[in-house]
């Protein structure tokens, strides 16, 4: 699978439909389930497909291995790669919100950057006790404009969200639950069974009523959409390409980035 020069495989994201539950699994464990443009594109296509599939009533997003998703694939973060990743990520986030079926994030491990923004976009989120959630953009020359800067403040409060975004902080699942970031925290061994129970509860409810409830509850997301597009434009126009290279190289070398030339 190739997308405008970005490579991926259908195996990067798997789907299994079982008893009207679509389990969508991010399957790049060696890369902590990081996303490039090709992976976000496939996720959006899968979500758009299950949205109109009469054999699906609920969607679950999760990751294979020890991560839900580490977000954007930093290895592809040239300036162009960063912007392109954002464009395709916005399509995936929008597909979560426009999906006619409830979408549950089953947060099995670390959810950072764009991975955390997938959790923010999901209708419901259940986290394993070992999970951590947060952002990383300001460390590497990116910015979480697809949820972190606009929707997360609605979920946990403006000051808390700015702290997470400004300092690129990650918090334990229990803290995320107390703040309203996720709906529930369970022992790791109980994560899938609890998620299945929630999905089955949703399947027993009136489907059209759920669709209307979801559409109505999306009002704040819809209001935030223009700020997401504007945020991507600001990254494209306002972030020096060389600073993105420094952030990427520092991250991959596991050293502090030196942004002093751009102050």
How would you characterize this protein structure?
It is a single chain. The relative contact order is 0.13. The strands form three sheets. A six-stranded mixed beta sheet has the order 3-4-5-7-9-12, with helices on both faces. With 263 residues, the protein is an alpha/beta fold. The chain contains eleven helices and twelve strands. The termini are far apart. It has helices at 37-51, 79-98, 114-121, 137-140, 152-156, 158-167, 173-179, 191-203, 207-217, 219-238, 241-253, and strands spanning 2-3, 6-7, 13-18, 21-26, 58-63, 67-69, 103-107, 110-112, 124-128, 132-134, 170-172, 184-186. The model has no long low-confidence stretch (mean pLDDT 96). It has one domain (2-189, 206-262): Alpha-Beta Complex (2-enoyl-CoA Hydratase, Chain A, domain 1).
């Amino acid at each position: 699978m190739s997308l405008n020069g970005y490579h991926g495989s259908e195996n990067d994201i798997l789907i299994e439909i079982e008893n009207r539950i679509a389990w969508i699994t991010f399957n790049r464990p060696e890369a902590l389930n990081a996303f490039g443009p090709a992976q976000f594109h496939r996720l959006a296509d899968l979500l758009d497909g299950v949205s109109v599939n009469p054999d699906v009533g609920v969607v679950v997003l999760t990751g294979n291995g020890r991560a839900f998703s580490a977000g954007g694939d930093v290895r592809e973060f040239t300036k162009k790669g960063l912007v392109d990743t954002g464009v395709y990520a916005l399509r995936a986030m929008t597909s979560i919100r426009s999906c006619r079926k409830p979408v549950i994030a089953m947060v099995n491990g670390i959810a950072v950057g764009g991975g955390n923004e997938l959790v923010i976009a999901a209708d419901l989120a259940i986290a394993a006790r070992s999970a951590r959630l947060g952002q990383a953009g300001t460390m590497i020359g990116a910015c979480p404009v697809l949820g972190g800067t606009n929707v997360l403040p609605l979920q946990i409060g403006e000051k808390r969200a700015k702290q997470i975004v400004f300092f690129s902080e990650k918090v334990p699942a229990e803290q995320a639950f107390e703040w309203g970031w996720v709906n529930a925290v369970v022992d790791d061994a109980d994560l899938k069974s609890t998620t299945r129970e929630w999905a089955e509860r949703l399947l027993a409810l009136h489907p059209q009523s759920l669709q209307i409830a979801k559409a109505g509850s999306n009002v704040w997301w819809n209001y935030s959409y223009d700020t997401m597009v504007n945020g991507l434009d600001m990254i494209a126009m306002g972030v020096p390409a060389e600073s993105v290279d420094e952030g990427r190289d520092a991250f991959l070398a596991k050293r502090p980035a030196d942004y002093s030339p751009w102050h």
